[in-house]
């Protein structure tokens, strides 16, 4: 495979990882928001805090990875996207700040009002951030970000049907992934009642996301027929089918309480959607701009990809150690005072 | 880039202020992120070797603070990566690939840092003491290397190298030459040392304040001594490296040197200016040290110093910002050296901290002084580069996002940073006070203090 293609694949792997891991951390914040009053919601919040605490920073680095690879690999696309979509992306950046900082602050706060204030900030930004990320993605997918610096419409590039659908889907996916992951975390923590509650949430959230995806397809058909055609009849069709099947399977598995297997299928459903979009749009990155014209010089691509390949030898075992360490035992979920 | 000429001055100003604010904010946290893990590991290691409860409790309490600061540092860094594109698409759209390599490498370093921080903090009581100590080492290494990579990217903006352009398009890049440009060695070394100074002096300052309030127990003395020793050892080296950086600027960016020193006319045997402000084309009210600048910049009292008059007025950096900023950095550097020397002499003579309350007062404000040096150093570097974003290659005004309304973005971001600052300071104070330090920490005080 030529270097620009490899770069794009690596970038898309990074994006997928961010959605699957970082997205679920945002989802945790959404469930935190919906957990109810301080007393009633405490068990939920403790589980969320316990589950994402050690790993969210590592998960978050995927976002930086994607940004940096974008400006390294396809600099003009990066500049076009950030300059046209600077309003939603500024809000994403502020949401990232609010979420991460407030989460860290809440963890070390002991008084109720502090925990409420930081908790509200954490939870609110957990909804806002995936929404605007989705809206930005919708703008790109529906061809509203032309090449050139600030060449697109600053508002309509992200306030449009596809963007709104994608934003909602972003929030829904985050919440769904989190509910699925947390169900198993709760059971491993030995709290079967809590696991049951998350299972119920995962079930109805999965149903909502399923409906949302169907609606989004209809929106896409009206708003962005080219991408719709690729998804429903072109190269991307197998991926869309995979996504739908995996989504349905997830509901069945959840129903049957196969909490480990459902992690896999829920993730597959999301992967199918993301890669379907990628494959559907390839090789056009922005309207009229194809990968070979946008890609950086081979020297840059070779150096960066080479470094990443070497870095992977460091990262893969380290990441594995991190997840393994904190997936092993969780017998002490609610030792902390509220 | 014709459309760019239409960018309103206010939007350009707002973009620059926003960048300066977020960078200036992030860098303080970044310094703590580079320096604090090393100092915490030192304490943990001493505690492990000696079994001393004071060291062990210090390590735990620092680690808990580190967890919060690191999170804030990471999110404030993330907005920077966004802003590179949101505010400066003209830079990133063309030259993004040239500085892509150091940033890709930095991404790896960030991963390592975040992964091992998660393990180090959350597995404190699960790993054996030695395994736990070792899990902290990658954090230190990754912190230092990530500082190296980002500053290498900045060094490229000071001393662009390793690329060929034709008609505004990049046609060839040598990413390694771009990363290891000639500005990289002095700048990265100066920055990494600055990080250890800032972290060391800030941490020591906390305990100096407590000691001034009467807490003179072993815990507080060690809390002061350990970080202060690290910072004090680094300080003289840092001044030497600052001199290296200055020589490099004299050779490669004479305009910046002229602005740093307020030299308007080219000449030989140029004096060093202390203080003074530029009025028109002249530096007024400055104290002159004859031949000083020629001597310092080129080791030769008769060396020629190029003045600002060789550069058209529109292309000169603002003397009244760069000149005072440079002086502040140097004054702070020597003030901190004084503290370091005081500590060293006292330690040599009596194996103890100096007795004088003035020493404690000095240490109490030393962290602020180090931050001041750090910020003014960056002002020298970045404002001294103006009006270029990439020195003599791309102007800042050509790189900025031409979209209207950047001013509102700046206002919003400023509000968020004010809130973030207030919350961070508040939470750090609560962290120190909620669980008071016992006079003589015992085993249960140590193990009972949960890191997360
Ligand atoms: C604790 C912090 C600290 C201290 C005590 C000093 N510096 Fe510094 N200085 C920095 C922290 C710093 C910095 C913030 O880290 C900078 C900004 C960019 C860089 O690479 O380092 C910097 C930049 C910087 C530059 C500009 C480099 C450039 O534009 O490329 C020069 C010439 C000096 N320094 C010189 C000095 C001298 C002569 C010092 C002697 C007292 C000194 N610095 C102390
Ligand atoms: C973290 C420490 C840093 C601080 C405190 C700092 C400070 C500043 C300041 C004060 C400005 C505004 C200059 C002006 O408009 O007159 C600025 C601009 C800028 N800096 Fe830095 N800087 C830092 C590091 C970096 C690094 C590592 C990079 C790049 C890799 C960078 C890239 C930029 C860019 C792109 C601008 C905007 C363009 C310009 O105004 O020239 N900075 N910085
Ligand atoms: C001299 C300048 C800089 C130094 C020494 C530095 C160092 C660091 C360090 C040590 C961290 C780890 C977090 C922490 O300790 O708080 C960090 C985080 C980060 N920095 Fe900076 N930084 C600098 C400037 C920049 C610039 C200019 C950018 C972007 C263009 C940037 C982007 C980031 C990002 C994205 C993170 C988050 C990484 C994570 O999630 O772990 N930094 N930086």
TrEMBL record, chain A:
<feature type="transmembrane region" description="Helical">
    <location>
        <begin position="86"/>
        <end position="105"/>
    </location>
</feature>
<feature type="transmembrane region" description="Helical">
    <location>
        <begin position="162"/>
        <end position="182"/>
    </location>
</feature>
<dbReference type="Pfam" id="PF02322">
    <property type="entry name" value="Cyt_bd_oxida_II"/>
</dbReference>
<protein>
    <submittedName>
        <fullName>Cytochrome d ubiquinol oxidase subunit II</fullName>
    </submittedName>
</protein>
<comment type="similarity">
    <text>Belongs to the cytochrome ubiquinol oxidase subunit 2 family.</text>
</comment>
<keyword id="KW-1003">Cell membrane</keyword>
<feature type="transmembrane region" description="Helical">
    <location>
        <begin position="202"/>
        <end position="220"/>
    </location>
</feature>
<feature type="transmembrane region" description="Helical">
    <location>
        <begin position="6"/>
        <end position="34"/>
    </location>
</feature>
<feature type="transmembrane region" description="Helical">
    <location>
        <begin position="299"/>
        <end position="326"/>
    </location>
</feature>
<feature type="transmembrane region" description="Helical">
    <location>
        <begin position="236"/>
        <end position="255"/>
    </location>
</feature>
<keyword id="KW-0812">Transmembrane</keyword>
<dbReference type="InterPro" id="IPR003317">
    <property type="entry name" value="Cyt-d_oxidase_su2"/>
</dbReference>
<keyword id="KW-1133">Transmembrane helix</keyword>
<feature type="transmembrane region" description="Helical">
    <location>
        <begin position="260"/>
        <end position="279"/>
    </location>
</feature>
<keyword id="KW-0472">Membrane</keyword>
<feature type="transmembrane region" description="Helical">
    <location>
        <begin position="55"/>
        <end position="74"/>
    </location>
</feature>
<feature type="transmembrane region" description="Helical">
    <location>
        <begin position="117"/>
        <end position="142"/>
    </location>
</feature>
UniProtKB/TrEMBL annotation, chain B:
<keyword id="KW-0349">Heme</keyword>
<comment type="similarity">
    <text>Belongs to the cytochrome ubiquinol oxidase subunit 1 family.</text>
</comment>
<keyword id="KW-0812">Transmembrane</keyword>
<feature type="transmembrane region" description="Helical">
    <location>
        <begin position="23"/>
        <end position="45"/>
    </location>
</feature>
<feature type="transmembrane region" description="Helical">
    <location>
        <begin position="358"/>
        <end position="380"/>
    </location>
</feature>
<keyword id="KW-0479">Metal-binding</keyword>
<feature type="transmembrane region" description="Helical">
    <location>
        <begin position="189"/>
        <end position="210"/>
    </location>
</feature>
<protein>
    <submittedName>
        <fullName>Cytochrome ubiquinol oxidase subunit I</fullName>
    </submittedName>
</protein>
<feature type="transmembrane region" description="Helical">
    <location>
        <begin position="406"/>
        <end position="428"/>
    </location>
</feature>
<dbReference type="Pfam" id="PF01654">
    <property type="entry name" value="Cyt_bd_oxida_I"/>
</dbReference>
<keyword id="KW-0813">Transport</keyword>
<feature type="transmembrane region" description="Helical">
    <location>
        <begin position="66"/>
        <end position="88"/>
    </location>
</feature>
<keyword id="KW-0249">Electron transport</keyword>
<feature type="transmembrane region" description="Helical">
    <location>
        <begin position="222"/>
        <end position="241"/>
    </location>
</feature>
<feature type="transmembrane region" description="Helical">
    <location>
        <begin position="325"/>
        <end position="346"/>
    </location>
</feature>
<keyword id="KW-0408">Iron</keyword>
<feature type="transmembrane region" description="Helical">
    <location>
        <begin position="136"/>
        <end position="157"/>
    </location>
</feature>
<keyword id="KW-0472">Membrane</keyword>
<keyword id="KW-1003">Cell membrane</keyword>
<keyword id="KW-1133">Transmembrane helix</keyword>
<feature type="transmembrane region" description="Helical">
    <location>
        <begin position="108"/>
        <end position="124"/>
    </location>
</feature>
<dbReference type="InterPro" id="IPR002585">
    <property type="entry name" value="Cyt-d_ubiquinol_oxidase_su_1"/>
</dbReference>
């Amino acid at each position: 495979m030529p270097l620009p293609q490899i770069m794009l694949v690596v970038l898309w792997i990074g994006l997928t990882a961010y959605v699957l891991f970082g997205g679920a951390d945002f989802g945790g914040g959404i469930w935190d928001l919906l957990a109810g009053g301080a007393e009633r919601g405490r068990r939920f919040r403790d589980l969320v805090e316990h589950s994402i605490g050690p790993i969210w920073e590592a998960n978050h680095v995927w976002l930086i990875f994607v940004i940096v690879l974008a400006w390294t690999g396809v600099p003009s696309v990066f500049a076009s996207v950030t300059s046209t979509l600077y309003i939603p992306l500024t809000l994403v950046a502020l949401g990232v700040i609010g979420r991460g900082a407030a989460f860290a602050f809440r963890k070390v706060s002991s008084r109720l009002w502090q925990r409420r204030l930081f908790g509200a900030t954490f939870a609110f930004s957990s909804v806002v951030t995936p929404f605007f990320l989705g809206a930005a993605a919708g703008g790109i997918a529906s061809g509203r970000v032309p090449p050139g610096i600030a060449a697109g419409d600053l508002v309509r590039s992200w306030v449009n049907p596809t963007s709104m659908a994608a934003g909602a889907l972003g929030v829904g996916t985050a919440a769904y992934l989190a509910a699925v992951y947390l169900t198993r975390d709760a059971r491993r923590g030995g709290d079967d009642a809590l696991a049951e509650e998350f299972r119920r949430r995962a079930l109805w959230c999965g149903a909502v996301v399923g409906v949302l995806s169907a609606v989004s397809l209809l929106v896409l058909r009206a708003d962005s027929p080219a991408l719709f055609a690729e998804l429903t009849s072109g190269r991307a069709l197998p991926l869309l089918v995979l996504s739908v099947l995996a989504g349905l399977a997830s509901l069945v598995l959840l129903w049957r309480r196969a909490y480990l297997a459902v992690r896999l299928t829920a993730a597959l459903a999301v992967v199918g959607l993301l890669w379907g979009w990628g494959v559907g749009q390839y090789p056009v990155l922005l309207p009229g701009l194809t990968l070979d014209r946008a890609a950086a010089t081979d020297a840059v691509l070779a150096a960066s990809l080479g470094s990443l390949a070497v870095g992977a030898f460091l990262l893969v075992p380290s990441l594995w150690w991190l997840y393994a360490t904190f997936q092993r035992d969780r017998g002490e979920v609610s030792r902390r005072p509220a | 880039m014709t459309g760019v000429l239409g960018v309103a001055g206010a939007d350009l100003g707002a973009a620059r202020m926003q960048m300066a604010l977020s960078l200036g904010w992030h860098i303080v946290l970044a310094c703590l992120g580079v320096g604090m893990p090393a100092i915490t590991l030192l304490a943990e290691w001493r505690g492990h070797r000696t079994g001393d409860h004071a060291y062990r409790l210090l390590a735990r309490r620092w680690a808990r603070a580190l967890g919060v600061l690191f999170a804030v540092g990471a999110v404030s860094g993330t907005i920077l990566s966004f802003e590179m594109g949101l505010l400066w698409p003209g830079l990133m759209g063309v030259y993004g690939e040239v500085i892509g390599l150091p940033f890709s490498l930095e991404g790896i370093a960030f991963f390592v840092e975040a992964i091992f921080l998660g393990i180090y903090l959350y597995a404190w009581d699960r790993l054996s003491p030695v395994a736990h100590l070792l899990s902290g080492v990658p954090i230190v290494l990754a912190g230092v290397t990530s500082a190296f990579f980002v500053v290498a990217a900045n060094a490229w903006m000071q001393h662009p190298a390793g690329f060929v352009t034709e008609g505004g398009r990049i046609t060839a890049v040598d990413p390694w030459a771009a990363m290891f440009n000639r500005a990289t060695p002095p700048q990265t070394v100066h920055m990494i040392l600055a990080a250890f100074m800032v972290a060391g002096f800030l941490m020591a300052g906390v305990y100096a304040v407590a000691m001034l309030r009467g807490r003179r127990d072993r815990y507080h003395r060690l809390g002061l001594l350990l970080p202060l020793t690290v910072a004090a050892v680094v300080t003289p080296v840092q001044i030497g490296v600052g001199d290296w950086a200055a020589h490099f600027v004299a050779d490669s960016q004479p305009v910046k040197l002229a602005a740093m020193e307020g030299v308007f006319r080219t000449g030989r045997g140029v004096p060093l200016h202390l203080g003074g402000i530029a009025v028109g084309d002249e530096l007024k009210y400055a104290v002159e040290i004859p031949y000083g600048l020629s001597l310092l910049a080129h080791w030769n009292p008769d060396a020629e110093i190029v003045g600002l008059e060789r550069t058209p007025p529109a292309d000169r950096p603002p003397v009244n910002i760069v000149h005072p900023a440079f002086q502040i950095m140097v004054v702070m550097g020597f003030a901190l050296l004084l503290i370091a020397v005081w500590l060293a002499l006292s330690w040599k003579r009596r194996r103890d901290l100096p007795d004088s309350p003035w020493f404690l007062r000095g240490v109490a404000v030393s962290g602020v002084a180090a931050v001041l040096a750090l910020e003014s150093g960056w002002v020298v570097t970045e404002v001294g580069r103006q009006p270029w974003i990439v020195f003599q290659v791309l102007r800042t005004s050509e790189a900025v996002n031409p979209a209207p309304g950047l001013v509102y973005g700046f206002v919003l971001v400023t509000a968020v940073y004010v809130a973030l600052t207030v919350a961070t300071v508040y939470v750090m104070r609560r962290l120190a006070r909620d669980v008071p330090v016992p006079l003589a920490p015992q085993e249960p005080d140590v193990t009972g203090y949960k890191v997360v």
